[in-house]
Amino acid sequence: MLGWEIFRHAVRMVFRNFHDALRVSAVLYLVQVAASLWVETAMPKGARDGDAFEMIPVGSLTTALFLGVAAVISSLWIAVAWHRFVLAEEYPSGWLPRWHGDRMFAYFGWGIAISLIVLFGAVLMTIPVSVLVMLMPPLAIFMPFAFTFFAAWFGFRLSIKLPAVAMGNPLKLSEVWERTSGSTGTFLVLALCTLGAIVAVSVIPAVLGTAAPSLAFALGAIANWVVTMVGISILTTLYGVYIEGRRLG
């Protein structure tokens, strides 16, 4: 099945190029880890738990905003750099990849736009699904799974635009949609593999959360790095297969 082959290729891409993956992402990913660690240790507990009545000191709020912006920038930097490493063989010269500010800004904008389109599609999907649930109430239990798979399927198809943005290719969403037509089964299998892998790598940190919080945080950070890099690699692979016509090695 092509969906499974794409997922497997993306995983192999990360670990086959493990040293380069670290050079592209390690320093930048530490920014995100530092932001998460600061929230866990320095933010008031009520604020971490979503208590709207918890007063946050101005200094903490400023630091949180700064770290949040830094984490977003580092995420964009990693994504654009990894796409370009795989697709254009743009190797990092040190422990920081090349800066492509214009590509990163465009990547951010298209990421927001695609997220809104997927959200709008999910909202439209609620209409027929709600009618079906009214006719057959037991189906309500499957609604969260249906929406999750719909969002993953829809999101994967549209997100092929993101590697194009990283490469400076003015590919239209309509072209992406046309190139991926007839591949519903592939994208559903890919969504199933991806969501299953995310759940699998999250189990151990979740289990250790109360018994060994420090170890759980460390394992969670490693798991999130793997998920991040594999996720970017999936989009890279989809772009290679559907846009550039590459074959899976």
TrEMBL record:
Keywords for this protein: Membrane, Transmembrane, Transmembrane helix
Transmembrane segments: 21-39, 59-83, 104-127, 139-160, 187-208, 214-242
Protein name: Glycerophosphoryl diester phosphodiesterase membrane domain-containing protein
Native source species: Litorisediminicola beolgyonensis
